């Protein structure tokens, strides 16, 4: 996905289009890792809902320095489960076009 906004004056987090969060099974306030394909930065933050259908990917606070507007990023979240369940678990992966489903 492409970073569409940066808000240096916010405490922290990443704002993600609510439709994208639902499609990827990310819940509000969940810890996520951000992998910046453009510059190689990697960092963790938490997700907050953005306007549904807007395509917003906004890095807030200090994170905005690690992935400026226009950066291509991967947003990853993780699940905890027992070993047997993990053997049969399939992750959710989405590849939106222009940050929209």
Can you describe this structure?
- The chain is an alpha/beta fold and 101 residues long.
- The radius of gyration is 14 Å and the shape is globular.
- It has a single domain, classed as Barwin-like endoglucanases, CATH 2.40.40.20.
- It starts with a strand and ends in a 13-residue tail after the last helix.
- Strands 1-5-2-4-3-6 form a 6-stranded mixed beta sheet.
- It contains 2 helices and 6 strands; from the N terminus they run E-E-H-E-E-E-E-H.
- It has helices at 18-23, 83-88; strands at residues 5-7, 14-17, 31-36, 42-50, 57-60, 73-76.
- The relative contact order is 0.33.
SSE topology:
Elements: E1 5-7, E2 14-17, H1 18-23, E3 31-36, E4 42-50, E5 57-60, E6 73-76, H2 83-88
Parallel strand pairs: 1-5, 2-4
Antiparallel strand pairs: 2-5, 3-4, 3-6
Could you give the order of the helices and strands?
A: EEHEEEEH
How widely separated are the two ends?
A: 11 Å
Number of helices: 2
How helical, in percent, are the residues? 10-25%
Strand content: 25-35%
Give the count of structural domains: 1
Oligomerization state? single chain
Instruction: Write down how many β-strands occur, each being a DSSP E stretch of 2 or more residues.
Output: 6
Looking at the structure, what is the overall shape? globular
- Could you say what the CATH architecture is? Beta Barrel
Low-confidence stretches: none
CATH topology name? Barwin-like endoglucanases
Largest sheet: 6 strands, mixed
Structural class: alpha/beta
Mean pLDDT: 96
User: Strands of the biggest beta sheet: in what spatial order?
Assistant: 1-5-2-4-3-6
């Amino acid at each position: 996905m492409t970073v569409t906004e940066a808000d240096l004056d916010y405490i922290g987090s990443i704002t993600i289009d609510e439709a994208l969060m639902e499609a990827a099974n990310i819940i509000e306030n969940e810890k996520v890792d951000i992998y910046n394909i453009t510059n190689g930065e990697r960092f963790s933050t938490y997700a907050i809902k953005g306007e549904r259908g807007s395509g917003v990917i906004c890095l807030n606070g200090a994170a905005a320095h690690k992935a400026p507007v226009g950066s291509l990023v991967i947003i990853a979240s993780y699940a905890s489960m027992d070993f047997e369940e993990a053997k049969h678990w399939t992750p959710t992966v989405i590849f939106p076009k222009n940050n929209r489903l």
